[in-house]
Structures are given as structure tokens and as C-alpha cells.
Design a protein that fits this description.
The chain crosses the membrane at residues 49-73, 85-105. Keywords: Membrane, Transmembrane, Transmembrane helix. The chain has 116 residues and is an all-alpha fold. The protein has one domain. 69% of the residues lie in helices and 0% in strands. Helix 2 (44-73) packs antiparallel against helix 3 (85-109). The radius of gyration is 29 Å and the shape is elongated.
Length: 116
């Protein structure tokens, strides 16, 4: 009735403590390395520059996805036989939202960098 579990013979409290100790050292080492590459350890100028790049790319991609998604879903991108009121409203919205996006870009990038 007492079946032996493979690997159960060599189990001891000391071995378990050694494994736990090596695991904690490894997890502590990986935490230090992860913090080394995180943004908290970067210089402020580099962090600010990367934030600007991320905001610029992500907001531009979001604008493009929303505009093309609405236009393609509602068949407003290309006027089929003739231009309709829906096409005109979509083009006005597209130009207006593009102007807002460009304004947002100028607000993001207007702060000068220390090097120039």
C-alpha cells in the first residue's frame, strides 16, 4: 500500500532549504536586472524622449485605424457613383481630426531638449 514516490528518497529538509535559497538568489538577481533596464533607471531626457516617441506613434496609429475603420465599414472612403452627404461629413471629420492630431503633435514636441 505504501508506494514510493520517485525522488522521494532523497528529500530532506536541508536539500529543500538549499533549493529555496538558490531560488531566492536567482529571483533577487532577476529583479535587479529587470530594474536595471526599466525606465526608472533611465536618465530623465531619455525617458522623456521615449515617451514622446511612444505617444506620437501610438496616437497616429490609433487615428489611422479609427479613420480607416469608420470609412471602410460605412463605405465612405471612396464615393461610389457620386459623392453623398455621408462622404462629405466623413471627409470633414477626417480633416478636422487630422488637424487635432497635428496640434497634439506640436504640443508633444514643442518642449526643447537640453542638447539643442
Amino acid at each position: 500500500m505504501d508506494e514510493e514516490i520517485p525522488g522521494d528518497k532523497n528529500f530532506s529538509g536541508a536539500q529543500n532549504t538549499r533549493e529555496l535559497s538558490s531560488f531566492l538568489k536567482l529571483s533577487c538577481y532577476s529583479t535587479i536586472n529587470n530594474n536595471f533596464f526599466s525606465m526608472s533607471m533611465m536618465e530623465d531626457d531619455v525617458r522623456d524622449f521615449l515617451k514622446r516617441i511612444v505617444w506620437t506613434v501610438s496616437s497616429g496609429f490609433l487615428w489611422l485605424t479609427i479613420t480607416l475603420g469608420i470609412g471602410a465599414y460605412n463605405d465612405l472612403l471612396v464615393p461610389n457613383p457620386r459623392i453623398s452627404i455621408g462622404n462629405i461629413i466623413f471627409y470633414i471629420w477626417g480633416v478636422g481630426s487630422l488637424a487635432a492630431l497635428i496640434y497634439m503633435y506640436t504640443r508633444i514636441w514643442k518642449k526643447k531638449f537640453p542638447h539643442g
